Amino acid sequence: MSEGIAALRGAALAWQADPFVVPPEQALRYESDAVLAMQDGKVVAFGSAREVLATLPGGTPVTRFERSLIVPGFVDCHVHYPQLPIIGSGGHGLLEWLERYTFPAECAFANEDHARSVAGMFLRELRRNGTTTAAVFCTVHPVSVEVLFSEAASSGLRIIAGKCLMDRNAPDALMDTVRTGYDDSKALIERWHGRGRLGYAVTPRFVATSTPAQLESAAALWREHPGVLLQSHLAENLAEVAWVRKLFPDHLDYVDVLDRFGLLGRGAVHGHGIHLSGRERSRLAETATAIAHCPTSNFFLGSGLFDLGAAKRRDPPIAIGLATDVGAGTTLSMLATMGAACRVAQMRGDPLHPVQALWLATGGAARALGLDERVGNLAPGLDGDAVVLDLEATPLIDARTARVEDVSELLAVLMTLGDDRCVQATYAAGAQVWERPDACDKAQ
Ligand SMILES: [Zn+2]
């Protein structure tokens, strides 16, 4: 029975509730000496060391982490793996950035070897950053999805991905048709969706690069496959919003375009959602459509400051998950992304509590993707996904975290100063998938 149990011991955080619904301090469960036990890919026990150790079979090996914090594995709700090679190509707004850097870079993904090499690096970087679940955009080429899924199958990570659908307003080499877009996506769903930890997302890039016929076809494909997600972009940049208005003059606004083509609803996750009216937010909330908040990308392209408060102060609130949106995003670190979300909120005069920021990168993100019964928390029955954060990762982090008064302050310091250097070890589906090379001195 003890065979295959992985037990981690150290300070740990788990969720008791949504910190946007209850006071943040009450949403957290903090154990200064916890044990997380995982077996067959799942969490089998989490709680105080005293309680959990008594239930484990004698001889179960326990890895102990000192001056660390164990948290649920991070969830990145929106990221483009083919854009990893152009991260940091800046100085432009969204539409020019797409034309100058992104589309040329994506053309290279017709080549399987190139796609495989970037997919491998991307998955390694996720593990190094403590990200155990990600919703990923590929390119228009089916091979870009094949390669990512085949690499991900052995990575231990939960990867949701899809082939971009684009049949207008893009270079010829990056366009499909209504027919090929539907058929290729359907074949990928049949081959990969639900295989191990892999899932599919129907992926119309955004409404300006798909004809009305393709948007209808994407919605049909999504509805025909329950459990498959839908991911796209929404109201990221003002020039884009004006363009969409011109392309769809008979619609009320951007959200109305998605709405009338059947692209809203539970299981739909739209990136950004910065430039929205009250009507649009209400419609997203009513339809249980989620938004992926991508703060470092929004800074990098100068897209705008997402109004998280307006999304959350509704009844019901809009489901929000945090996301890196690399390559416009400037980091794959969800810790750094949490820090950026706090800065966006400050700029809006509507501060974000650090506990809420952590929620947006774990439990809240899982909920946005409809995966909260699988990931986003440390609780029996959920996938064994956890990150061990090193409180001594740098001299300054060491000195600063030694003086915190409570968990909220500790989280605030980690998301202000921390990034991949803090990730001492990553566990996915109950197994260690990353250990910082110098970290073995710390784990006992
Ligand atoms: Zn994006």
Task: Please supply descriptive tags for the structure shown above.
444 residues, binds zinc ion, four-stranded mixed sheet, nine-stranded parallel sheet, single chain
Largest sheet: 9 strands, parallel
Hetero compounds: zinc ion
User: How much is the average pLDDT?
Assistant: 96
Find the count of extended strands (DSSP E, 2+ residues).
17
Percent in strands? 15-25%
Question: Could you characterize the architecture of this molecule?
Answer:
- It is a single chain.
- The protein is α/β, with parallel strands linked by helices and 444 residues long.
- It contains 17 helices and 17 strands.
- Helices cover 37% and strands 22% of the residues.
- The strands form three sheets. Strands 6, 7, 8, 9, 10, 11, 12, 13 and 14 form a nine-stranded parallel β-sheet that branches. Strands 3-2-1-4 form a four-stranded mixed β-sheet. Strands 5-15-16-17 form a four-stranded antiparallel β-sheet, with helices on one face.
- Helix 9 runs parallel beside helix 10 (278-286).
- The protein starts with 5 loop residues before the first strand and ends in a 9-residue tail after the last strand.
- The relative contact order is 0.16.
- It binds zinc ion.
- The site of zinc ion (ZN) has 5 residues, from strand 6.
